[in-house]
Design a protein that fits this description.
Elements: H1 4-24, E1 30-33, H2 38-54, E2 60-64, H3 71-84, E3 88-91, H4 94-99, E4 107-109, H5 115-124, E5 130-132, H6 138-156, E6 160-162, E7 179-182, E8 191-194, H7 202-211, H8 218-221, H9 257-261, H10 263-268
Parallel strand pairs: 1-2, 1-6, 2-3, 6-8
Antiparallel strand pairs: 4-5, 7-8
């Protein structure tokens, strides 16, 4: 590890953010977005450490199932729910997947969707009558992730949730804040997004995993560097993620690139 003291300091700073969130909100009003990825698992670990040290219960957890999850990711979450004392709630936009017959790549007619999803598509400015059911396309990403998240926030009535985004991960996230308030709109309730690992770099995340013995999904060991939908996420090497040239190559290079180019717009619409 390059600098053990620095990693410990960054982790303690993350835990300060968690404690500040717990001081502002009742734990029952908070939730954790756990994707099974390296970043959200680090967030989960920081929250777990605070709860263990302060004798507090863990907040509830949710995972957005966009319809094309890696089996390895789902297995990883199942294997580690007990370790962290949580029970994951998978959230999914059933209306969209039903219209697609549950088949990736199938054509979805917008007229077959419910009023809420039709309104979300209108919000995008999408003018076609149909789209392909693919979770990381522009329309699919919005419906299967952002709209699904907003519906969860409305139904669960949580006041804030923790998410594992970082300043160095993607250009559209470079100006995010540790406490990121979202005003009420016709599409989402007022809520707070809590981002306790913004100050970590990709290298820091891996150093923290090994310093604190945090579980690692097997896909990273097999060369995947950033995890998204199964059919639009690839690896370029078999070298474990943490052994790759993290400083001089693109972390999200194995992700669908039209989505990456639209990330600014997606985040304006509420994407994490």
């Amino acid at each position: 590890m390059r600098n053990k003291e620095m990693i410990i300091k960054k982790m303690e700073d993350s835990k300060k953010i968690v404690r500040e969130a717990f001081a502002k909100y009742s734990i029952k009003d908070l939730s954790i977005a756990w994707t099974g990825g390296k970043d959200s698992t680090l967030v989960l670990e920081a929250i777990y450490q605070v709860c263990q040290e302060d004798g507090l219960p863990m907040p509830k957890c949710f995972c957005i199932d966009e319809g094309d999850m890696f089996k390895e990711v789902r297995d990883f979450i199942t294997e580690n729910e007990k370790k962290y004392g949580v029970q994951i709630e998978y959230i999914h936009n059933d209306d969209v997947s039903k219209a697609a017959g549950g088949k990736l790549g199938a054509t979805v007619k917008i007229s077959d969707l419910n009023k809420r999803n039709r309104a979300e598509i209108e919000r995008l400015g999408y003018e076609e009558d149909e789209f392909d059911y693919e979770p990381e396309s522009f329309v699919g990403n919005h419906l299967m992730k952002t709209a699904t998240l907003n519906m969860y926030l409305e139904e669960s009535k949580v006041k804030g949730f923790f998410e594992g985004i970082r300043w160095d991960e993607q250009g559209s996230r470079a100006n995010e804040t540790f406490f990121s308030p979202r005003e009420k709109t016709e599409y989402n309730p007022e809520h707070m997004r809590l981002c306790p690992i913004l100050h970590f770099t990709e290298r820091d995340v891996w150093d923290a995993h090994f310093e604190y013995n945090i579980p690692i999904c097997s896909l990273y060991k097999n060369g995947y560097r950033s995890l998204g939908a199964r059919i639009t996420t690839s690896k370029t090497t078999d070298v474990p993620a943490w052994e790759q040239d993290l400083e001089n190559t693109d972390e999200r290079g194995g992700r669908r690139q039209d989505k990456e180019g639209l990330m600014e717009k997606l985040r304006e619409l509420g994407y994490m």
